[in-house]
Design goal:
single chain; 612 residues; seven-stranded mixed beta sheet; alpha/beta; 20 helices; six-stranded mixed beta sheet; globular; Aspartate Aminotransferase, domain 2
Length: 612
Amino acid sequence: MEDIDVNALLIGGKSENGELFKSLLGRLIDEHLGWRQNYMPQDRPLISADEQASPAFQKTVQKLKDVMEELSVRMRADSVPWESPRYWGHMNSETLTPALLGYYFGMLWNENNVSYEGSPATSLLEEEVGMDFARLFSFPNGWGHICADGSIANLEALWYARNVKSLPLAMKEVKPELVAGKSDWELLNMPTEEIIDLMSSLSEVDLDLVKRKSARSGKRIEDLGKWIIPATKHYSWLKAADITGVGMDNVIMIPVDEHYRMKIDDLEKTIEDLATQKIPVLGVVGVVGTTEEGAIDHIDKICALRKSFAKKGINFYLHADCAYGGYARSIILDSNYDVIPYADLEHELRQNNVFQDPSNTISRDDYEALKALEDVDSVTVDPHKMGYVPYTAGGIAIKDVRMRNAISYFASYVFDKTIDPPVQIGPYILEGSKAGAAAAAVWATHRVLPVNITGYGRVIGRSIEGARNFYKFMSELEVEVEGTKVEAHTIYYPDFNMVDWVFNVEGNKDLDAMNRLNQNFFIQSSIYSGMDYLKPILTSHTDFTREEYGDSCLGFIRQIGITSPWEEGSHLTTLRASAMNLMMYDAKDFAAYKVKLTEAIKEVLKPCLNTK
């Protein structure tokens, strides 16, 4: 077991490790400056001492200093203190020191990871990060890369699904002998692996011809069928359907249960109904870490369903949107990146100091869902969320590296096919120019914290434990504000590290009144009521609408005594905390902040209760 102290990898809410950070950053900057000076030492400097002493030069330097001072003032005045234990809101937190150092250092070299020619250092780093992603999801023949964010990764996943599933139709037109004897229905229901095998058997010339006749031609995209997502989907899926030409009308949303996980029975019935109508399923998306609830869909049951339908000749692409929760899989991988048997997991969690409280563990449901990610076709995973890396660093991993040929483009001025560089990223991604600094940041962090239980497992454990501390606090919270008793009610036990709750005045049975209270609390505890730096607590919120969530939250609403009708147009306004702070896992530290948070909540509630 490697002995890693996560506290050493944070600047700290009170800059406890600030001097360490400055010294490491200063050393990296000095090394870069020396590198510049040592390149071709016979070349003389082009900025002379005389010029540096000139009035124009000095005036420009002073302007630079003035602008930096203004920038500092604006950032200090208008930024959110993500690193504070008083922040319980969006998916933001203090980022890890190796990530910050890697990003700063990477920026100095100004590498553009679209082509190895322009980024010989950071392209190799990104390739290694992609292999890290593949190891994280147990893809032995997989590949991955960094992209701007989860929305781009999701778009890329739908791009993969659209192109791959359209290849059999294109093969029928260009190389009919490859799919001889198959009807269009059979072609549209070929397994992903079989399609990739056929694609890989083609010559480069034939592959180009097939790809021209595939979905990238713009033809027969609607024939590919439906794209199925849970009601808790990220909004980027609708944008992706729009952009790829799949179309929003071909997106089907599956209801979720009271724990905000996709209903597997409804998914099965939907696919059966589509098959009866001879409508193919282009693909299905399961989510690990939903945006509003942090819920983990039953990926294992979706995979089992896919295998069951495959026996009936019905196959579809399967993607896991793990933008938020992907790094959680590290908690079930041993130091060799093998999945830890569930029977051994509790022992391994204790051995690696993942949780402080021995009663904390990973539920069997969540374990099976995380384990089953090895059976999907592609995964979205964002280092800039639970990887604790600065924005922008999204990511995607594919199970079979050969699949990337379904979306590849080679621009002759960027990619010379007569040269075989050590790594090629640009031809196989949606983006063009991209920051090498992001690759340096993720690479450095993964080297300090491996994506298994010995490294990131401890980071994820801290966040989960902090969320459970916050959940217990909110579940038990009752405060009296100027004679009015207000109760907090948590909506569900968190799968991951997201906690949703509501405040309600004791005895109130009206949904609208409760929604107004929570909307007002959010406004008072966010930037929308003025500058946030001195606010005693900060949080975020969301709405569970009947149109999207159905009756999934009705049981909770009735349980806390709300009797208002749950009908068309109804919604539940919730307060929402992505509990990413890595210091609130500690029971003693949280106990101290619990007192402070209680007083802060009472302070924020005062104007809310006085608002009609």
